[in-house]
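Notes from the pairing session

We agreed to fold both candidates in a single pass and log them together. This is the raw record for the first candidate, unedited. Please don't reformat it; downstream parsing expects exactly this layout.

Candidate A
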Amino acid sequence: MSRGGGRAEPGAASRACAARAVAAVLGAGATLDAALGAPDLQQLAPADRSQARALAYGALRWHHRHRRLLALLLDRPLPGRDRLLEALLSVGLFQLLDERQPDYAAVSATVAATRLLGRPRLAGVVNASLRRLQRERAQLLAEALADEQARSSHPAWLIARLRRDWPGDWPRILEAAQQSPPLWLRVNQTRLAPEAGLARLREAGIEAAPGPVPGALRLARALPVADIPGFAAGEFSVQDAASQLAAPLLGASPGMRVLDACAAPGGKACHVLEQAGGDLDLLALDADDARLGRVRENLARLALPATTLRADATTPAAWWDGQPFDRILLDAPCSGTGVIRRHPDIKILRRETDIGPMARRQRQLLEALWPLLRPGGRLLYATCSILHEENDDVVAGFLADHTEAAAAEPPAGTLPGWLRCTRHAGWQALPGEADTDGLYYALMTRRTG
């Protein structure tokens, strides 16, 4: 659908771009961040680009609900599992069901997007589906939301895992994962005190409040980093408040030799350096060269010294110089189930069959890196998962098999009251508590003698 002179209807381009991004996740297994880097989206005007991102995130955040609605709305299943049509309909449903999205032109612009997507014959299906939802919204929603997957907009396997692992918390965890996350900043306390950082933001008209971790500031609304005063100069970094617990828990003192084994994108490594005034011999390791580039960019922006190296942390014989480390940070690759509110595509991309191999990989990393720790040194194991199989079970199994390893007491004053003690060894931040992401930490020490 277009207007006179072939000009596309306003809003059609942003919806088409959002649908392509969602389809890349549903059909090609792309991450949403990667899909949103497509050239067509980058060519949109800033306001349209922002709208496309919001629509893509919203469509995926609620896609399990939308799938159930589509089963009710369509007379027959989507042809050939047509991911692009499914994605466009999901974008349209999100607009009509989310109170924050203006729906006065949602249907017409979504229908018009079929032409931009090269699928004009689907305009009738899209129009009929969205118009029917407008007419029969209450009845259709009541029927769809009787299904637990649709109601929570999570896959059945993950609901079952959370119910088992967190029997008293799982409904709230599911609800928290459906919320849009805030933007958290970390004040670079080598440059200014947290109070001065807060004042700096407020002077610029940016509403912010202190967080549950010293130096963490929560913005009332998200902003591009280019609009944050002092960001380019290294006064602030973007980092979730729960992630800001890693550096104080690790407790690296000036002069220590430190390894950050899976360092990208570098937020934790930079924070560790900031807390020691930059006076560390720190090696930031990552297996992905592109992601390691992010670490270098952050170190340069903050003017912090570190050695960066592209290498596989599971094969230290290929890169370790034989000198032991005083502190090791292992932020292990994981399911990401604690950061679903930031990455709703995790609910689509992750499978239950992924969890066992991930836990084995995490144990492999621990086994490979433990010999690099000096006696009396400390290793901090961290994930952004909330599943016991990747967290407590990995650490408990490791401690049981290594008599020279022991759970360590955290440095005084580093554990906030909202952090949960786990069954065996470690602490868990659940999503939404203190408005943070869900992260797990376990601190271990290598016995001396």
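Candidate B (folded immediately after A)
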Amino acid sequence: MPLIRSLWLRLWLHLACIAMGLPAHAAPALSDRPMRAGFGLVVKFDQGQPTAQLDLLPELGVRWVRDAVQWVDMEPRAGEYKPFPPAFSQRLQRYRQQGIGVIYMLGYANGKAYPATKAAPRAPIDPEALGRYAAHVTGLLKAAGVDFAVQVWNEPHNFQILKMVGGAWNGRPPSPWVDHYVDMLRAVSEHVQKKAPGTPVITSEDVLVNHYWFAQHPRLPQGFKGIGLHAYANESSSGPEVVAPYADSEWARPFQLVDRDRAFATAIDRLKRHTRKHTGVEPEVWITEWGFKVDGRFAGGRVTEELVAAFLPRAYVLAEAAGVKVLCWFSMQDANDGAYGLIDRAGRQRPAFRTYAAMSRIVGDLRLTQRLSPAGQQTRGTQAYLFEQGSRRTLMVWSADNQSRTLPLDPAWSATRILDAYGEPVKVGTRQVVRQAELGAAPIYIELGAGSTPRWPPRAGD
């Protein structure tokens, strides 16, 4: 009889969960850390960004920045290593005071200390020379007391390595540049780990398939796990939910980089599985560049400042849900790369600055615990994610395809406040007795009351 009662109780609980719109078996939380832990930003202080804008980083809640000094400035003659320039040392001090880690990019070719010759045409990008320089930088960063990771180069197929060594842009063999870059990874890893064991060393590429070639390369260091991805979409993408490759992209063969829906989540999952299979370790994905250029193109037409502001918090939630270690938005200020910045060259804060700051205020201290919308609906329709910390619960909801929709406010949510993507209160409309909110490309935040039930799909009433 006790066994029968136990089975009946389990069945009753299962049916009750279904009736309430909750999962019958509690899934593990998507993340065990505050959302803010993954907030990163590419800064441009080495390209003329005003130093005074350092004061804005706390408003954004940033925990990581990508910053660096050029190799040629740190080693003007072979083996003659310099301390960090005063301006960079001052930035490091500010980062440490604000609890911000540094992703230090090693690059670029150092033809001053290691000039190319007929006998050694690749001397300016010599792996062992780069490794020794990496050891020097590691010692300086360690002494500065900041958390740091070391990124090996920046998009080697775009910057110098492919041009100097040769091969295909997509890494398809024979591509000697891939071999050379993996030798760089090996040399840097060996030198950095001797200097500071456990320091993250990460790759850098914006072509997703190249990370597949790196992961299965026979000379990749044993236990190497750092993937430095530049996750840019393209003009066929409707937003951050949709990646640039297709499931059958010819240039990616023999690999399939993404499912048929081109969902960002499946692209990250496939990349992790491939890396795990070939390295035997659990990979860490660091997105060290992701952004959208104002006046660029996407599947819906022209990218406006308001659309970038809508895409930014969506990208951070997608990254956190996929288990990405850090997402560095590209970039804090326009500098030399065009209208990607949260701040333009005149110092004006674009709308995306405000949505970044609002995201930090509203969910930065909360954990992302659940994706409520259907698993098979990641690139279209309504997206809903639940954030929690103690008694605090907040839903973040938007339209992945940027279409206008009406969201009924479920009485079980006990919603206490609704905020738009900028952190401003939302006026809630009514249709007869049903309270509802309007959705679009920009997320809204719904703060739930104590004892609320975050069931999905929402019901207009009971």
